[in-house]
Amino acid sequence: MKDENCIFCKIANGGIPSATLYEDEDFRVILDLGPATRGHALILPKEHYANVIALPEEVTAKAFILAKKMAAKMMEVLHCDGVNVVQNNGEAAGQTVFHFHIHLIPRYEGDGAGV
Ligand code: 5GP
Ligand code: ZN
Fold first, then answer.
1. Which of 26, 66, 90, 106 is disulfide-compatible with 80, CB 3.0–4.6 A?
2. Which positions are annotated as active-site residues?
3. Per-domain residue ranges for the chain?
4. pTM, rounded to two decimals
5. Which atom of ligand 1 is nearest to the CA of 7?
């Protein structure tokens, strides 16, 4: 299911161009528009799910396996010192776009990012 009013549905499915780091049948990984650090990326499923609670188990597994692989790639390519894998669900938890996504935030010693 896609939601025609959802910006991440449009981006994930190529309806709006984005800085894409990776794409497969189920996901697109893009650079965040307001990066917390250099290389901050978002994993977006191509199907619309509001949050992790709405995510089918198979998609959940694929999404977090992809997060693990992308985190490893970031360490290798960006030479960062660490990576935050963060995921917000609900406004109270800091979610602002209600299409499930995983943040991959490369961390650099002393970067001071308040993640
Ligand atoms: P949330 O607060 O929902 O966990 O994260 C939403 C993230 O999406 C924020 O980090 C924000 O900068 C990013 N974002 C919002 N709109 C866009 C957009 O149109 N394009 C991209 N690439 N990132 C976006
Ligand atoms: Zn969506």
1. 106
2. 101
3. 7-107
4. 0.97
5. 19
Task: Indicate the pLDDT class of residue 40, thresholds 50, 70 and 90.
Answer: very high
Residue 17 has a pLDDT of 96
- Specify the CATH class of 7-107 in words: alpha beta
User: What's the start-to-end Cα distance of the chain, in Å?
Assistant: 31
Report the separation in Å between the CA atom of 99 and the middle of ligand 2, taken as the mean of its atom positions.
5
Burial class of residue 112, CB neighbours in 10 A (0-12, 13-18, 19+): exposed
The dihedral formed by the CA atoms of 88, 89, 94 and 100, expressed in degrees to the nearest 10: 60
Pair 44, 12: CB distance under 8 Å: yes
**Length, in residues, of the chain:** 115
What is the spatial distance between Cα 66 and Cα 102, in angstroms, rounded to a whole number? 10
- The whole-angstrom separation of Cα 92 and Cα 66 is 26
**For residue 31, which atom of ligand 1 is closest to its CA?**
22
